[in-house]
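Crash report, auto-generated. Payload:
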Amino acid sequence: MQSKKERAKIGRERLQRIIEMCKAVEERSLDPFLVDVDEIIKVVREFFPDWEHPEDLCLDAEAINRLASVIKLQSEWVKHRSTTLYTDPFLLEEKIKSLNREALVEAFLGAWHPIVELEQISLHSLKEALTYWESLPPLKDRWKDFPPPEETGGVASREELLRLKILRDKAFTEELENFWNELKRLVAEKGEDGKIKYWDFVGAETYEETVHRAFLTSFLVTYGYATLEVYPLEEEIFIKPFEKQQRRIGKKQLVSLPIAITREEWEKWRKRAEAK
Amino acid sequence: MSKRKAVYASKIKRAVHMLFYRRHKKPGVKGWELRKALGADYPKVLSILDEYLKPLDLQVKTVFEEGEKPHSEKPTPEELDKARFYITLRGDLTPKEAKMIGWRIDDLAGLAITIAYIISKKGKAPRKEIEELLREKLPGWKASLNIDRYIRYGYLSQDENEQLYLDWRTRAEVDQKMLMDLILSK
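Recovered output after restart:
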């Protein structure tokens, strides 16, 4: 003898199966007559007295609703078969496959009556356009509030770029390799499992220096001197140097990883570093 | 010219402006718009216009809401108000003319296959099935592109389950029964 709980569980499963089946018929254009409506109604009726909770009643209502949609599809199916438009899809498919494109086009042109439409301007829109033009203030009146254009850019000298710290007085490759050696040294001293926390590596005394280190780090990763390991759940990023520069082999897609180096983040890192 | 004739001549002109020039995103004019502009006797104005267009191989085409046929032989004023009216070609185009209006023979054949298949599937078919069918005659990459094009033009519509349906332009331009008969009789 089944307990009430077990019976309810079986009933829920059966309703769920009915809903899934009806949904499949609706969404995948399957033959609606695959659904045995009498059998489903029997099942729904059998379990209906067992439902006490609102969720079970909702499930029951959904099953009935889905079944109603299938019955509607059955009715449409019968209606379609009785019309002159009915053609067996398999027959048509075979016919389409056997016809060449010229024959298909010829058949289509016999049944196609394209719409005639013109998109030229009408008198009404011409009148509207004239009214708009008349009420439009002259350009000199409309633009007078705009600020004067900024000075156009010139050419910066190497000295200027050095002064602005955009360029360093050292070859870039040499600087990058020194930076790579620094990373390897820091990993050996402070790192774990051959890697170090990203911020512990790029973080510096000043914010400007930190940005510069992050900039160089991005080149270390792009040029195959190091790699990043990201742990999204822990919100931690590690940098791991390679012993030798890695060349990109195969067609593996490279992924860009944006890392924000904001002043707030830098300040937070500074406080943490000082506390240590 | 009698006053009555002059009134109809003016209404016909107005109807021509409304029907030939595109007023909305989609071409065609709704029945209620015509009633508002031409008066309650707009069906009569359209039938006179249709007679005028006959020698030019054009016609006034009435498409009832969602492709439904009116309940009786003579549509009710309500059914006409909800219907959409277009000017379409009365006769057929030759393949050469179809090319001249920007259709490649491959694309037209694909459209014919797609519409016929959807009709045979009671007005709705999965996109995947149609793509497979089109691949029999078109290169694979073109099958999907063509379906997107038919959707863009308004011949087909697609729902979130990737089911394709016939859309407003098919209802306005294609004689569905004739298409099926012509394909099956080939």
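Post-recovery validation: Chain B touches chain A through 58 residues (CB under 8 Å).
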